[in-house]
Amino acid sequence: MKSFFIEHWVFLIATIVSIFSIYYSNYLGRKANFSEYKLNLEKDRYNNFYLPIIKHLYSFDSEHLKFNVTTLGNLTGDLNYLEKHIRSNFEYISPEVALLYTKYQPLAGRLFINNELELVDEVDALFKKIIRQVLIEASELSETLEVPNLAQQLLKNLY
Question: In terms of residue numbers, what domain contains 133?
C-alpha cells in the first residue's frame, strides 16, 4: 500500500513538472519572439525615420551645418522636408518628437504659407528642438542596434 501511494506521488509530480515545462517553454518562446519583433521594429524605425534625416543633415557642407529653418529651406529647395518626412513616417516617431511636431507644424504653416515673418525665431527654435531630439533618439537607437552612431557627430557639430 505504501509503494502504491509513493507511485501516485511520483506520477503526480512528474505530470506537474511536465506541464510546467511545457508552459515555461512556451513562455520563453513567446518572449524570444517578442524580443525579435521589438528589435525588428527598432531597425525599421532607425532605417525609415532616423537614417534619412541623418543622411539629409550630412549632405550639408560644414559651413551650412549651423542652419535655421529658412537656410535649410533655401539650401534644399524644399521648406517642408521635415514635415513631409515626419508625416510619411509618422508611425515611427517618438511621443517627444510628436509633441514638438504638433507645436512646430501650425507655426511653420503660418510662417511659410502666410509669410508671418515674426514667427521665424519661434519656428526655428522648435525646428532645432525637433532635430536635436531626433539625433538624440537616433544616437540611443544606434547603440541598441549596435550600428555606427552617425548622429553623435552631428549632435556635437550642431549643438
Answer: 39-158
